[in-house]
Amino acid sequence: MKYSIAFRGLPFEPEKRQVIYVENLYDKRINAIIKEIYEQLKWTFKRANLDFIYLPMFFNDEETKEKILYYAPYLTTEIIEKAELRSSYLLGYMSHQENREKITPSLIFSPKKDDEEWIFQGQTVDFDRDGRGLAIQWFEDAAAEIEEEISKEESDTIRFDIPLSNEDDGVPYRSDDDWDGEDSKVEYSSTTGFGDKDVKRYIKHSKKCVEDEEGFTGTTHESAPSSLDEILDEDVRETLEELEKKIERLRLFGIPLDVIVAFVARYETISRLRITDDLTIFLPDYNNIEIKMPALYKAVYLLFIYHRKDGIVLQQLEKYHSDLVYFYRKTKNIEQLTPRQLESINKLESSWDNDGSIYVVLSRIKKLFKNSIDEHLAKHYYIEGRPGQPYNIALSHDLIIWGDEDE
Fold it and tell me: Which of 262, 270, 239, 267 is nearest to 367 (CA)?
C-alpha cells in the first residue's frame, strides 16, 4: 500500500533520494531479514541512485562512522558502535500522532516541503517475511519503482493527487481505513541518552572552502601568486579541489543529525595541540591526528602560535621576519635559505598591501584543519582576525604543548 505522511519540526533537512525504513512497532521477522541482507540492500538502492537508511544499523555503517569521526574525532569506534536507534524514531515528529499506530513497516521517501511540514511518500513493506530471496526481489523492485517516481517528479512530468483520509485531518493518506488511536511518544534506546537538539549551529552547508578574510577582496586560491606556488613543498599531493571534495563528503547531512550531535556532545572535548621537537603538528586528543602543512604554511602557523599571547597585526608582519625565517628554516631542516626563498618570504610579509599572499596562506591553513576535523572544532586552531587588528588562534594557551613530552 502507498500513502503519504506528514512530519513537523524535523531537526534536519531531509534529502529527496533518501529512502528510510520506519515502523511503529518492532517487527522481528522483517528486521531480521533486513539485518541479514543489509549490505546488499545498501548496494541495491545505491545502484538506483538512492540512499537506504536503516536506523538500527545507522551508527554501524562505515560511511556514517567516517563522518562521525570527522565531526567528533575524540570518539572511538567502540563508543560509536554502542549507539542504538529505533526505526520508530522519526515517527515522534508526525504531524498527527493519532495516526501513528497505523504505520506498519514501510519505506518513506521523496520529501516535499509544505509550509512548516515535510510530506513524505510511503510504501508499505510487503513480502514473504520468511523468504530471503523474495525479500531481496521485493526491495529491488521497490528501489526501481521509487527511483522512477522521483525521476519523474524531478523532470516535472508527473504530479501526485493523493486524497485525504476519511477524517480529513489534513494529512494526505491513501487508505480506506479510519485513522484513530492514542498519542504516542518517540521511542529510541535508553542506552544513548539522545535528545532533541538544534544542530544548525553545528552543521555548515557552505560549499565554499576557501574563505576570503573579512575586508580583503584580493587574491583567492584560484589565482594565487606565482611566488607562493614556487615555494610549496613537493609533499603536497592533494589539490585544494580534492580537499574541498573530501570536506564536502565528510560533512554531516541527512538523518538523523540531531541524534548524532546529541550523542557526541556527551564526549565533546577540545584537543591539545602538540608541536613536537621536529615541528610536527598533532592533535593528541583527536586520535592523534597529524595536521600536515607545506613548509611555508607551517612556518607561518608556528609564528602565530609562538606570538599568540598578543597576536600579530598583518600590516606589521615584517617585524617578525627573523622568527618567520627561523621557523621556515627549521621546518625545511636547512641551515640557510636560498635567495629565492628569502625573496618569497619578503614578498609574503608585505603582501597584505600587494598581492594578498598572506590571506591566501591563512585561508589554506584553515582548509588544512577543516580537511581533518569539522569546522565547529577546527575553528579553535586556525588563524583569524580583523583588518588592522591582531590575528590570533583561539585555542587556550594551556592546551598548546611544545616538545615531545607533556609539560
Answer: 239
CB 192 within 8 A of CB 85: yes
Q: Count H helices and E strands in the chain, helices first.
A: 13, 11
DSSP 391: B
- The SS3 assignment for 167 reads coil
Report d(CA 292, CA 283) in Å as an integer.
Answer: 11
Q: Write down the residue that cell numbers 548524532 correspond to.
A: 260
> How buried is 336 (Cβ within 10 angstroms: 0-12 exposed, 13-18 middle, 19+ buried)?
exposed
Instruction: Give whole-number Cα distances, 300 to 109, 197, 303, 330, in Å.
Output: 49, 38, 5, 12
C-alpha 323: how far from chain center = 37
Among 163, 12, 6, 164, smallest CA distance to 96 is for 6
**How much is the pTM?**
0.60
Q: CA nearest 362: which of 341, 332, 385, 394?
A: 385
CA-CA distance, 303 to 306, in Å (whole number)? 5
Identify the pLDDT of residue 289.
94
Q: Read off the pLDDT of residues 111-124 as tens digits, 9 standing for 90 and up.
A: 999 888 999 999 99
Residue for grid cell 582576525: 385
In contact, 349 and 357? CB cutoff 8 Å: no
85 in Cβ contact with 55 (< 8 Å): yes
